Amino acid sequence: WTVLTPDKLLAPLDTHAIRSYRQLGFIKTYAVNIKTVISVTEQLKHIAPEDPLKYDFVLSRPYASCEDIG
């Protein structure tokens, strides 16, 4: 990609990601809307400003794995 840099991307949110980010204290809501997406993205920018989504998968997947196990 030459037009879009990693620092301009927004965090993808699904049910599992919302649950994980709530548990981590990134957000306080279960609402999935643009306000929540921006809030999570801003929190991730504190970890990796040049690429906020660098650790998104690692941070947002623990609860998805637990549900899959049963």
Describe the protein.
The protein has one domain (about 5-70). About 50% of the residues lie in helices and about 0% in strands. It is built from four helices and no strands. The chain is globular. The model has no long low-confidence stretch (mean pLDDT about 85).
List the helices and strands and how they pair.
Layout: H1 15-23, H2 34-47, H3 56-60, H4 62-69
Summary, kept brief:
This protein is mostly helical. Helix content is 51%, strand content 0%.
Summed up, the helix count is: 4
Seen as an oligomer or otherwise, the chain set is: single chain
| Total number of beta strands | 0
Biggest beta-sheet profile: none
What is the CA-CA span between the terminal residues?
39 Å
Key structural traits:
single chain, globular, mainly alpha, 70 residues, 0% strand
